[in-house]
Structure formats: structure tokens, C-alpha cells
Design goal:
about 550 residues, mainly alpha, Butyryl-CoA Dehydrogenase, subunit A, domain 3, Alpha-Beta Plaits, 14 helices, disordered N terminus
Length: about 550
């Protein structure tokens, strides 16, 4: 039947391949059209990139260098040291050379660029000369300030050492010191003055103070303060002479003003140069915009066409996915749900009306689930049997005991448990060997099975040399009779046991307990009672039956 179905089936693989091939053909067609349009569009872009964009990039580079030139010019104007000035001017020359190189690439026929650069370079040279002169003057000013500090330090040391030792002319000395302090203060202030008028006022005030210093020294005759006149002359030479601090500061301010004006002029030249560059960049940008508009128009037409192609391919894909979902995925989901139901123990038969691979899988699952069910029953039967004796095992005993407890709770009858242990079986094994030991257990199991015959009862191997019997609906009196029969029949086997301390032959000890509805019906408790009875039987010499009593 299975082979017959296989011959007639409709292959899902063939259908799936056909669907995938359809989609791939549509996709490749769209890709081909996209590629052909892309090549055309790339050609247009290459034309733009090869002509206009390089010019725009060069313009941008020149513009960037021009901005750096403006920044460097400002930095040159504000240079305070010769090293800073030289480094900045070197950078300016390098930037101008870079502008020349990029400018020649940008437009070789435009002489405006090179002429303007020459003018800017000459003006920057003049500006650099002014800054150099200013830097030299600034260095001289720093030396004058250093001299001023040294003179002031010497005078302060003189005051600290000798002022309180002298008692004469202290008023004149104090006046001289006050006028000196103001001169020092005004000298430092000149460094921060930025206007010539303010500096001239500072100079006039210092001249007045030096006159006062001269008047103060006329009244100071006592030593060591008679040296203040020489300090006055030193200070006056340092501050007021032609090459003194104040004249140098005047020269520095004048040159700074000229440098600022010259710097503004250079910045204006650079600004005009930058505007010309912007004009050139605008012309380049206009050509790019024109080409770009043409490209955009073509691109819009291509996009519309591509949208149509993609929509068609999309609907083809949707159709394929719908078919796969309906014919394959939904059926697989249903099949999975049915399989899960079978796994959960529901007795259902899987069905699929189509004739393809999925329906064949359904058929195979049904076929193998029946086989699994049969094998499961066989395994359950094997799992409840003892491999050596062929009687039930501990697991079967536990299941039976729970069922019997349930029956006792529902019905008003009793149940008896016989816990049986082979006396001195370890000694028997050690003396006669494990093979005879196994044969002995098999014979005992056969005897128990022949005595406990009712379908309601159970004989099981509890473990090792222990056996257990469940006598359903059996009173303690009847159970004793069964136990006595077991004791007698096993003795009747006449299996020689020379190492036994209680009998010449193999014997057993039996612990008996009976459970009724009015007792505590717990598996663990019932087994404990039977085990205690067996323990008492062993204590009292073995080869006997002991019935459980509460005093145990």
C-alpha cells in the first residue's frame, strides 16, 4: 500500500522548485534592468566626477588655505616672540606655495590668482618686518623691566635692614619710598596700556614723580640712605632716557598700530582674493547643478520603471509565500499539533487528504506510532518483571501496593503483606557460589508463585534475597496460613545449606502485617511494619513467621 501511494504522489519538491525558479527569474530580470540603468547613470556621474567635481574640490582646498592664511596673519600680528613670529611666517609662506600649486591646477589661464598672491606675499613680508621690529623692542622692554625689578629689590632690602636704625629724616625717606612705589606701579601699568594718549599721561606723571624724588633726596644725608640719590638716577635712566622703558613702550605702541593697520590691509587683500575664488567656485557649481538636473530627470524615469518591476516581483513573491504557507507551513503546524497530542497520550489518528510528501509523513507517523504503542506495552511488561526469577519486581510491588491502598479506602476489607528473607543467603553465596545462589532464588520464586496464585495477589522480588507478597482482601489469619505454607514448601525443596545457623536446608524468615480501612494507610508505614516483623523473626532465630504487633 505504501509503495502504491508513493507512485501516485504529487511531489512538493517539484512544485517548490518551480515556484523558486519563477521568483528567481523575476528577480534576475529586475536585477538586469537595474544594472543596465545603473551603468547609464554611472556614466553620467563619471562625466561629472571627471570634470566639475575635481574643480570644486580644488576650489575648496584653495578656500581652506586662504582661511588658514587669514588665521595665520592674525597670529603673526599677535606674535610676542621672535620664535613664534618666524614659525608663523614660515607657515604663511608654505600656505601661499600650496595655494599657487592648487590654483595652477584650478585655472592655468587666470593670471588674477598669481598676481594677487604676489601682492599678498609682498605685503605679508612688510608686515613680518614690522612684527620683527616690534618683537625686538618688546625684548628690550623686558630687559628694562628686569632692571627695574633689580633696583626695586635692592631698595626694599635697604629699607628692611636700615630703616628702623635711623632716626633722622624719616619723613623725607617715607616720601621718597611712596614716590618710588608709585613710579614702579606706573612702570608696570605701561605694559597694559594700549592707547598712546594714556601712555603719554603716564610718562608725564612719572617725570613729576622723579622731580619729587630729587627733592626728597636733598634732605636725606644720613647713611646708608644717602645712596637713594644714586638709585633715583638709575631709575630715571632706566625709564626716561631715549632708550628707556617709556620711550621703548611708545615705539612699541606706534609699531603695533602700524602692524594692526597693515594687517587689516592684508586681510582685505585676502578677502578680495577669497571672493574671486568664490566666484570661480560658483561657476563650477553651476555646471555641476546643470549636469545633476539632467541626471535627476533620467533617474526619476528609471525609478518609476523600477518601482513597476519591483511591485510585480513583490506580488509574485507574495503569491509564492501564500502557496508555501497554505500548502506546506499550515499543514506542518497541524501535523505538529497532532503529534504533540499523541505524545501527550491522546488516542488520535493523523489524517491528510493531499497526496504528497507531507501526507506520506503523516502516514509514516501513524504507522510508527502504532509500533511504538505495541513496544511500549512490551517494555512496560518487561519493566515490571524481575530478570532472574521471572516474578514481579520492586516497581510492580510499589504500583500494586498503591492500588491496594486505594481499594481498601473505597471498600471495607483488609490486605496482608508478607516480607520474606532467605536466611544466611550471603553465606550461601560465598560458600556455594553465585550461580547456585541464583538457582536457589529462582526455585524460591517458583515456590512463591505456585502458592500465591490469585490474580488479585502479587509475588515480587523486593531486592537481593528478599521477596514480598501482597495478599489482597486477606485477613491476618489467612495470611498466616499462606506464610506457613511458604515456610514448609521452601524447607521441602531440601536445598542443602551447610553454613546456615538455623537449618540444614535453605529456609526463610517471614514478617507479616495486615492493613485495614481503620489503619493509617500509607505505603511507607505498611512496609515499615512488615520490615519490623521480619527483623523480629531474624532476632528470634530465623526460619519462622512473626506477625506485626504495636509493641514492636
Amino acid at each position: 500500500m505504501k509503495n502504491k501511494i508513493l507512485k501516485k504522489k504529487k511531489s512538493l519538491a517539484n512544485i517548490f522548485i518551480l515556484l523558486v525558479a519563477t521568483f528567481l527569474f523575476s528577480f534576475l530580470f529586475v536585477v538586469y534592468l537595474s544594472y543596465s540603468r545603473h551603468v547609464e547613470y554611472t556614466h553620467i556621474l563619471d562625466n561629472i566626477n571627471a570634470r566639475s567635481i575635481p574643480k570644486i574640490i580644488d576650489s575648496f582646498q584653495v578656500n581652506k588655505h586662504v582661511n588658514f592664511l587669514v588665521y595665520s596673519t592674525g597670529k603673526l600680528i599677535n606674535s610676542k616672540t621672535q620664535a613664534s613670529r618666524r614659525l608663523t611666517y614660515t607657515n604663511i609662506i608654505n600656505v601661499i606655495e600650496q595655494i599657487k600649486q592648487v590654483g595652477n591646477k584650478l585655472n592655468k589661464t587666470n593670471s588674477f590668482l598669481s598676481n594677487n598672491l604676489k601682492v599678498i606675499q609682498n605685503e605679508l613680508y612688510s608686515l613680518n618686518s614690522l612684527i620683527e621690529t616690534r618683537s625686538k623692542i618688546h625684548a628690550q622692554i623686558q630687559l628694562k623691566i628686569q632692571t627695574l625689578d633689580e633696583i626695586n629689590t635692592e631698595i626694599l632690602s635697604l629699607y628692611d635692614v636700615s630703616y628702623y636704625q635711623s632716626i633722622e629724616n624719616k619723613i623725607s625717606i617715607n616720601n621718597w619710598r611712596v614716590h618710588l612705589a608709585e613710579i614702579v606701579k606706573l612702570s608696570y601699568q605701561t605694559l597694559n596700556i594700549r592707547k598712546l594718549n594714556n601712555l603719554r599721561q603716564n610718562i608725564l606723571r612719572q617725570k613729576t614723580l622723579f622731580t619729587l624724588l630729587g627733592q626728597d633726596t636733598k634732605y636725606i644725608k644720613n647713611k646708608p640712605f644717602d645712596t637713594l640719590d644714586s638709585y633715583t638716577k638709575k631709575l630715571k635712566a632706566n625709564n626716561l632716557e631715549q632708550d628707556g622703558l617709556l620711550e621703548l613702550r611708545l615705539d612699541e605702541l606706534r609699531i603695533s598700530g602700524r602692524a594692526t593697520g597693515h594687517g587689516n590691509f592684508v586681510n582685505n587683500l585676502i578677502g578680495d582674493f577669497e571672493k574671486e575664488l568664490e566666484y570661480e567656485a560658483i561657476k563650477y557649481a553651476e555646471s555641476v547643478i546643470l549636469n545633476t538636473k539632467t541626471s535627476q530627470k533620467k533617474a526619476k524615469e528609471q525609478i518609476k520603471l523600477m518601482i513597476v518591476y519591483f511591485v510585480v516581483a513583490f506580488f509574485i513573491l507574495i503569491g509564492i509565500l501564500y502557496y508555501i504557507n497554505t500548502i506546506i507551513i499550515k499543514r506542518l503546524v497541524t501535523l505538529n499539533q497532532n503529534v504533540q497530542q499523541k505524545i501527550n497520550g491522546e488516542n488520535i489518528t493523523l489524517s491528510d487528504k493531499r497526496n504528497d510528501e507531507i501526507s506520506h509523513i503523516t502516514y509514516s507517523i501513524n504507522y510508527y506510532s502504532k509500533k511504538v504503542y505495541v513496544q511500549k506495552k512490551q517494555l512496560e511488561r518487561l519493566s515490571l518483571s524481575d530478570a532472574l526469577t521471572g516474578i514481579s519486581n520492586r516497581r510492580a510491588f510499589d504500583i500494586k501496593l498503591k492500588n491496594e491502598i486505594s481499594l481498601i479506602k473505597r471498600n471495607n476489607f483488609s490486605m496482608s503483606i508478607l516480607m520474606i528473607d532467605v536466611d544466611y543467603f550471603k553465606l550461601y553465596n560465598d560458600y556455594y557460589g553465585h550461580q547456585l545462589g541464583d538457582e536457589c532464588l529462582q526455585k524460591i520464586g517458583k515456590v512463591l508463585k505456585n502458592i500465591v496464585k490469585r490474580d488479585l495477589d502479587l509475588v515480587a522480588r523486593y531486592g537481593g534475597e528478599e521477596f514480598v507478597c501482597i495478599l489482597s482482601n486477606c485477613s491476618s489469619k489467612n495470611a498466616i496460613r499462606v506464610a506457613e505454607d511458604i515456610l514448609s514448601k521452601i524447607q521441602g525443596l531440601k536445598i542443602l545449606h551447610q553454613t546456615s545457623e538455623c537449618s540444614k536446608y535453605i529456609s526463610v524468615s517471614i514478617g507479616l502485617t495486615t492493613a485495614a480501612k481503620n489503619n493509617r494507610l500509607l505505603s511507607k508505614l505498611i512496609i515499615e511494619k512488615a520490615d519490623k516483623s521480619l527483623y523480629k523473626a531474624k532476632q528470634r532465630g530465623r526460619n519462622q513467621i512473626i506477625v506485626y504487633e504495636e509493641e514492636f
